Amino acid sequence: PERAAGFISQMSSWGYVVAASQYRGNAGGEGREEFGGAEVNDILNLIPLLESEPACDASRLGIYGGSRGGLMTYLTLAHTDRFAAAVIRAGVSDLISWQQERPEMAEVFRDLIPGYDPTDESTLLTRSPARWTERLSKSTPILMLHGTADWRVSPESALRMASALLESQHPVQLVLLPGSDHSLSEHRSERDRLTREWFDRYVRDGSPLPDLVPHGD
Predict the structure, then answer these.
(1) Which of 28, 56, 75, 148 could cysteine-pair with 17, CB 3.0–4.6 Å?
(2) What is the domain-level CATH number for residue 23?
């Protein structure tokens, strides 16, 4: 979409090589979308692609995802520790609670998730990283950006995910943007600034991870 292309261009202007994926089975692509299933491999396959790109330093990678792409970012971090930083905008993190908050999502899951059974939570559990944050790469610090006026993915779900990450001793920073919608359209300049600062700190500069052990006076 044009909005995504604009943000990709923005990140490129910061001096980063940007590679973006599309969900399999969409926009003429091969295969079938599974809403958090095998398409995670399409993201992982970008890593060797970037390694083959002379203009890219594949030893310093960051990952960004919004909404459903945020879910894919979490799932990716359960499969690799290659990313030096992650930024997630309004990310889906728990399909079980999401379906409870938005019952209409059951129809989407029925259409896209192979073997979906509304009486069996197992297929949703594998797509709900908030329930197993200990599996996410702790070497990848996560910046979560979420609007408090987001009706698509509730800010409460972001709070629950951040709490689960903290409990797992995962480096995370949650920024709630007051009155902002799902796209953070009221805070785009702040979204861009925070995203760039996070990537510059951990991807470009390779800053050390924060000390999560309780300390100080």
Answers:
(1) 56
(2) 3.40.50.1820
